[in-house]
Fold this protein.
Amino acid sequence: MVNLAYVIAGSEATGGAGIQADLKTFQQLGVYGVGTLTCIVSFDPKADWGHRFVPVAPEVIADQFEAATSTYDLDVVKIGMLGTPDTIDVVARSVDSRPWHHVVLDPVLICKGQEPGAALDTDTALREKVLPLATVVTPNVFEARTLAGMDAIESVDDLVEAAERIHALGPEFVVVKGGVEVPGPDAVDVLFDGQEITVYSTEKIGQERVSGAGCTFAAAITAELAKGTDVPRAVAVAKQLVTEAIGARVASNAPFDAVWQGAYTG
């Protein structure tokens, strides 16, 4: 039997992040990936590698969802880049129209290149319509600060506080990713299940963020959940995969490298 995992996310033209990274991660973990595109993002090398963002029409997103969920019996889904209130609305209605064993939300709050007002509208819509559907949410430091209403996250204790605050918004499990943003020699993530905190820590590999790490982390959790792994173990697998993927990162002409999921040793 082949395990299936579904992802609703944007396309990222360089292959380093977005649905490209998600499907690579699913494949690396032995899971058949099914995907629905929400937007197309391409970096602009003529404008300091800023984002060029093109949303997919809501009716096309709904068509993709109908096709994917009619073709396969899908019960685990990752939600990634959405980008506009209209996209959030159609994805929320689609996801809420059927039962899921797990909904993993990588809460990409702001798309670079959007006007600040549009970004604020997107943040609000995501919190109100998608976050309540999630069983697992995986914010980075910037996203966690916004969701938790905190001015700063600068320590492991702050990561824990943010996880507890976000848990109160509805998701069953919250993983706050410290990455390179929290001072210290280790990259620390914390998982809160409503009762217990679990800390995952590995030595940092450099001090720069690597494209696709967050997408890959949430996708790895999704793939493991599709295989029947429990959430704490799924997070541990994701942590190992991302650490190894950062270590084997792919260099590029852009001002950032990309993770390489194929480095994962299992």
User: Anything to note?
Assistant: The first strand starts at residue 4 and ends at 12. Residues 231-247 form the longest helix (17 residues). The chain has one domain: 4-263.
